[in-house]
């Protein structure tokens, strides 16, 4: 088949027929936007209930025919011709591995009646890694293109509705009008994240996938420390449905504390945020990966998993800690407060940042060689209801004035808008386009139509509507060339920012993250630092090797510090290790933490408590304190957990990996 596939004529398009997905119509406030992020629950259908069934041709091999059956959890593909398959290989495509779908048409006069739809998938290989695959099917059962196009759109719409958790109508009328307009996401990329590969990974993996999913996005590269914090202070947040950081945990820390610097911080902090891991630690991404039901992963595999979850939509409330430092400054924490061994390794391994996540391994070895103990006082307000968890294999000891709990690991499981394609950076950034690329109505400039497989048809997206339809690359997707044709993002010139671009705070001193603020939620559980604590608090004093206050489950992408923790459980999970532990025992704890089984070791120096608030008073004159991996001033600090203060883009929970 030597024809060509192209976009439909603009005159035949309707704005409400964009074959893209959305979290719903853009609400008026950030709180409403946050509530709209979670897709409505799907209808109660059995996993194997057939929703659609049909027989289609293939592309580019026109001689093959396939039978397709769509169920709520998977697409079943069986070859009918030239030789039927009794047990088709690769014939089961779980929806958890699908990023998106689009419809296509042919430019060849001899193939004018046929319509096409293409499904983009990221299956796992035998060795566990994901690789992009795309399947294009030819709809030719009717005599006219209009009828075949309607059938292709029916399949594409049904598949996209399932991916987004949108209910399908019971009468069988599946039309593109079921899909709302796409969300608008702001991507913030730290090009120096991890081993300095964040920008390359973003071009190679993130942008192609979210384009296939139909996401509308703008992208900004951060240029310096605290750049993201400054950007979000001046953003008109009503224009965005979410802000996604493409880096490690540090960039999200900047974004959240940029919200805190705004006069409208109470509204701003509800803006949905997401993370695509391209850093060293990637702790929050590890928790998102587990929440999505994927196996533990690192590197590019973790990035692809989190990108798939982002493409599917959905969010959860995110607990945030307000941390008050010795000087009275405050910051928001989504991850952890650390003192002792963990913070020492985190900061001292900065010099090995070029190693990526391996920096922590090397830092741990060096930290064990020079193991220190720190004298201090830890006080906390116990949670009224402890988190449900099984009894560990060996109980931890009860000491005077202290109750040590040992949880066992849980099983792994209408608003006016400025135009898109803008950047709030002073420097317009080139956005390399995946190759081959499709024509996208509303793009700033036409995208090249490239021949596939050396002589096959050329494909172009049938978006079914004009406007801000995003890109949708067609298979196969090679690595981006060194100097691809680029669409430039122009600077923002419309509108007045909601706040001043500057927080009015003094510039950060060297070695300080500068992420402190005087605004924030009221800490009603905490008296001022330096004053006595109210009744009901538990106080521990002595020599500690480490103290960790963590909110989500993960301390790193492969370290499950609080296996039973949830994003919105309203708890700060306190873990500490007393002095007197041997280097070998401490190493065993961290090795077991990779599986979340460290509480089952029965280590007498290991302690745990679930709390609503805590106070840490170091009694050693020197040490390192970190908040979300960022070093802060050394001295007494206290923090209170604020349940559901933020919103996290997580994707759906427990994505199934196989369908029975």
From TrEMBL:
<dbReference type="GO" id="GO:0008481">
    <property type="term" value="F:sphingosine kinase activity"/>
</dbReference>
<keyword id="KW-0472">Membrane</keyword>
<dbReference type="Pfam" id="PF00781">
    <property type="entry name" value="DAGK_cat"/>
</dbReference>
<dbReference type="Pfam" id="PF19279">
    <property type="entry name" value="YegS_C"/>
</dbReference>
<protein>
    <recommendedName>
        <fullName>sphingosine kinase</fullName>
        <ecNumber>2.7.1.91</ecNumber>
    </recommendedName>
</protein>
<keyword id="KW-0067">ATP-binding</keyword>
<dbReference type="GO" id="GO:0043065">
    <property type="term" value="P:positive regulation of apoptotic process"/>
</dbReference>
<feature type="region of interest" description="Disordered">
    <location>
        <begin position="405"/>
        <end position="531"/>
    </location>
</feature>
<dbReference type="GO" id="GO:0046512">
    <property type="term" value="P:sphingosine biosynthetic process"/>
</dbReference>
<dbReference type="GO" id="GO:0005737">
    <property type="term" value="C:cytoplasm"/>
</dbReference>
<dbReference type="GO" id="GO:0006669">
    <property type="term" value="P:sphinganine-1-phosphate biosynthetic process"/>
</dbReference>
<dbReference type="GO" id="GO:0016020">
    <property type="term" value="C:membrane"/>
</dbReference>
<keyword id="KW-0808">Transferase</keyword>
<dbReference type="InterPro" id="IPR001206">
    <property type="entry name" value="Diacylglycerol_kinase_cat_dom"/>
</dbReference>
<feature type="compositionally biased region" description="Basic and acidic residues">
    <location>
        <begin position="1"/>
        <end position="17"/>
    </location>
</feature>
<dbReference type="GO" id="GO:0005524">
    <property type="term" value="F:ATP binding"/>
</dbReference>
<dbReference type="InterPro" id="IPR045540">
    <property type="entry name" value="YegS/DAGK_C"/>
</dbReference>
<feature type="domain" description="DAGKc">
    <location>
        <begin position="180"/>
        <end position="327"/>
    </location>
</feature>
<dbReference type="GO" id="GO:0051049">
    <property type="term" value="P:regulation of transport"/>
</dbReference>
<keyword id="KW-0418">Kinase</keyword>
<feature type="compositionally biased region" description="Pro residues">
    <location>
        <begin position="472"/>
        <end position="483"/>
    </location>
</feature>
<feature type="compositionally biased region" description="Gly residues">
    <location>
        <begin position="453"/>
        <end position="467"/>
    </location>
</feature>
<dbReference type="InterPro" id="IPR017438">
    <property type="entry name" value="ATP-NAD_kinase_N"/>
</dbReference>
<dbReference type="InterPro" id="IPR016064">
    <property type="entry name" value="NAD/diacylglycerol_kinase_sf"/>
</dbReference>
<dbReference type="InterPro" id="IPR050187">
    <property type="entry name" value="Lipid_Phosphate_FormReg"/>
</dbReference>
<keyword id="KW-0547">Nucleotide-binding</keyword>
<feature type="region of interest" description="Disordered">
    <location>
        <begin position="1"/>
        <end position="21"/>
    </location>
</feature>
<dbReference type="GO" id="GO:0012505">
    <property type="term" value="C:endomembrane system"/>
</dbReference>
């Amino acid at each position: 088949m030597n024809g060509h596939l192209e976009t439909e004529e603009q005159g035949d398009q309707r704005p409400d027929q964009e074959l893209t997905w959305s979290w719903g119509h853009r609400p008026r406030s950030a709180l409403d936007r946050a509530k709209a992020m979670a897709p409505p629950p799907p209808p109660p259908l059995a996993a194997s209930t057939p929703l659609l069934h049909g027989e289609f041709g293939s592309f580019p091999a026109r001689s093959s025919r396939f039978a397709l059956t769509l169920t709520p959890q998977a697409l079943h593909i069986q070859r009918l011709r030239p030789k039927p398959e009794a047990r088709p290989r690769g014939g089961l495509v779980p929806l958890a591995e699908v990023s998106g779908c689009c419809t296509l048409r042919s430019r060849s006069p001899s193939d004018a009646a046929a319509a096409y739809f293409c499904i983009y998938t990221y299956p796992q290989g035998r060795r566990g890694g994901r690789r992009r695959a795309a399947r294009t099917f030819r709809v030719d059962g009717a005599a006219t293109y209009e009828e075949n196009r309607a059938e292709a759109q029916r399949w594409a719409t049904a598949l996209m509705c399932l991916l987004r958790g949108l209910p399908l109508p019971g009468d069988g009328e599946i039309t593109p009008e079921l899909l709302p307009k796409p969300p608008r996401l702001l991507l913030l990329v730290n090009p120096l994240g991890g081993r300095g590969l964040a920008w390359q990974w973003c071009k190679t993996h993130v942008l192609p996938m979210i384009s296939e999913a139909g996401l509308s996005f703008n992208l900004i590269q951060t240029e310096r420390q605290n750049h993201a914090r400054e950007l979000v202070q001046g953003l008109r947040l009503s224009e965005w449905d979410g802000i996604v950081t493409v880096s490690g945990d540090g960039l999200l820390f900047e974004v959240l504390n940029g919200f805190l610097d705004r006069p409208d911080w109470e509204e701003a902090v509800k803006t949905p945020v997401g993370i695509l891991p391209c850093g060293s630690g990637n702790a929050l991404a590890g928790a998102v990966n587990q929440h999505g039901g994927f196996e533990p992963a690192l590197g590019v595999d973790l990035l692809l998993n989190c990108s798939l979850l982002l493409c599917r939509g959905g969010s959860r409330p995110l607990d945030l800690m307000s941390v008050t430092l010795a000087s009275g400054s405050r910051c928001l924490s989504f991850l952890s407060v650390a003192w002792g061994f963990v913070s020492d390794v985190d900061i001292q391994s900065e010099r090995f940042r070029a190693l990526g996540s391996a920096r922590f391994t090397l830092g741990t070895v060096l930290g064990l060689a020079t193991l220190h103990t720190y004298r201090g006082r830890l006080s906390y307000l116990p949670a009224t209801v402890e988190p449900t968890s099984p009894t560990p294999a060996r109980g931890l000891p009860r000491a005077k004035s202290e109750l040590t709990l040992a949880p066992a690991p849980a099983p792994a499981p209408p608003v006016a808008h400025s135009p898109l394609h803008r950047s709030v950076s002073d420097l317009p950034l080139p956005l390399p386009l995946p190759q081959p690329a499709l024509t996208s109505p509303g793009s700033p400039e036409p995208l090249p139509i490239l021949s596939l497989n050396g002589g096959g048809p050329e494909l172009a997206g049938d978006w079914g509507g004009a406007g801000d339809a995003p890109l949708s690359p067609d298979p196969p997707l090679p690595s981006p060339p060194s100097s691809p044709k680029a669409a430039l993002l122009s600077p923002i010139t419309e509108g007045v920012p909601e706040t001043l671009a500057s927080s009015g705070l003094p510039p950060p001193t060297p070695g300080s993250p500068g992420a402190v603020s005087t605004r924030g939620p009221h800490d009603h559980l905490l008296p001022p630092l330096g004053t006595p604590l109210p009744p009901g608090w538990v106080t521990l004093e002595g020599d500690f090797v480490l103290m960790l206050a963590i909110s989500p489950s993960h301390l790193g992408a492969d370290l499950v510090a609080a296996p039973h923790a949830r994003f919105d459980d309203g708890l700060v999970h306190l873990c500490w290790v007393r002095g007197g532990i041997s280097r070998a025992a401490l190493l065993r704890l961290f090795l077991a933490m990779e599986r979340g089984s460290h509480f089952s070791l029965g280590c007498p120096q290991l302690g745990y408590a679930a709390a609503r608030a805590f106070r840490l008073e170091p009694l050693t004159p020197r040490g390192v304190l970190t908040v979300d991996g960022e070093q802060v001033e050394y001295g007494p600090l206290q923090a209170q957990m604020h349940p559901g203060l933020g919103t996290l883009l997580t994707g759906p929970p427990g994505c199934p990996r196989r369908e029975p």
